[in-house]
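Intended use. Records like the one below are meant for learning the mapping from a protein sequence to its folded structure. Do not use them to infer anything beyond what is encoded.
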Amino acid sequence: MNTGSNEPGEVAVASDGSEVDGTEPDGARDERGLGSRAPEFVKARRVLHLSWQVGVFALGLAVVGVGIVLLPLPGPGWVIIFGGMAIWATEFVWVQLVLRWTKRKVTEAAQKALDPKVRRRNITLTAIGLVIVAGLAGIYLAKFGMVMPWKIEE
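Structure written out for the chain above:
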């Protein structure tokens, strides 16, 4: 499934000849394409539109910042980062293109992961990894017992 174009400035075209935005099914946003989603009265006034963009950027930056903080902590860091990028995508074309590219790559990875040969290989590698980890844990327990490494006195 290809949700966009590989070339900058190009737009994907559906089989019936209409442009496809790639963000919503059933062509809900086909007419709008890329660009600002601000209301028309905001876009009509330059100062208001610029302040709107600054507000959207600040809000998106705050959400992305929270997501970055949550990456090493328990929590949905990546989900929050992509949420902040979705906020930015309401106003900035470059983020819309990044999200379109990301969606295309995730779709390709999902299709590749469903391939039976790839699944079989992944299951085999996971089983081998678990055997290695279990072996190392067994060696550790045989040598030191249930004592934690920071309490070992030698």
